[in-house]
């Protein structure tokens, strides 16, 4: 009996030890804490048109609003592609979703082509809706930001597998300390904050997955 308990303890350490250490190393300023949920029940994007069937459900998504002046705002995409997409591309349930007004389809193809010169862009998705849809989608994030007249936002948003907006509620650089999104016009916010926060969300998911597998094994 004692030997059986000891074996289970050893297995638990083998399962969780490396992951806890990995999480500890990656969380940076978040100090092993989960990344706060700032908005629950973000709208899904399944009612937008796209070349693929896109959903936020059961995916870890970076959500962007590049607006009608897409090709003049491609610096955002290039920054995110270099600092975020390339870093997390290998994670199975990771995706980039760019929400655009209808009429931007050709510009989106051009941007994706440019991104594809140095990157496998099969997890970059561009979706299109009427202006009211784009605004409704943005408003569902419930941030203190606004879309401009071209339906553009400089911010990229982290949406978890339960379609919740994740961010910071203790950010000293933000008014009110709430960081809902990461300004992709500059490399610094996405390199210094967004990378770290995405690591936390992904590590949370991996920890939960391993825990579920372990519990299933113990019940057998």
Protein described:
By secondary structure, the protein is of the alpha/beta class. The chain has a single domain (31-200), classed as 3-Layer(aba) Sandwich (Glutaredoxin), CATH 3.40.30. 42% of the residues lie in helices and 16% in strands. It has five helices and seven strands, in the order αββαβαβαβββα. The chain has helices at residues 2-26, 74-88, 105-115, 131-139, 187-219, and strands at 37-39, 60-66, 94-101, 124-129, 152-159, 165-166, 182-183. Strands 1, 2, 3, 4, 5, 6 and 7 form a seven-stranded mixed β-sheet that branches. The protein is globular.
H-E order: HEEHEHEHEEEH
What is the total tally of β strands? 7
Tell me the CATH superfamily.
Glutaredoxin
CATH topology: Glutaredoxin
The CATH architecture assignment turns out to be 3-Layer(aba) Sandwich
Let me know the average pLDDT: 86
**Helical content band:** 40-55%
Q: What does the largest sheet look like?
A: 7 strands, mixed
The DSSP helix count reads 5
Number of domains: 1
Distance between the termini: 17 Å
In short:
The chain has 220 residues and is of the alpha/beta class. 42% of the residues lie in helices and 16% in strands.
Strand and helix map with partners:
Layout: H1 2-26, E1 37-39, E2 60-66, H2 74-88, E3 94-101, H3 105-115, E4 124-129, H4 131-139, E5 152-159, E6 165-166, E7 182-183, H5 187-219
Helix pairs in contact: 1-5, 2-5
Key attributes of the depicted protein:
220 residues, 5 helices, 42% helix, 16% strand
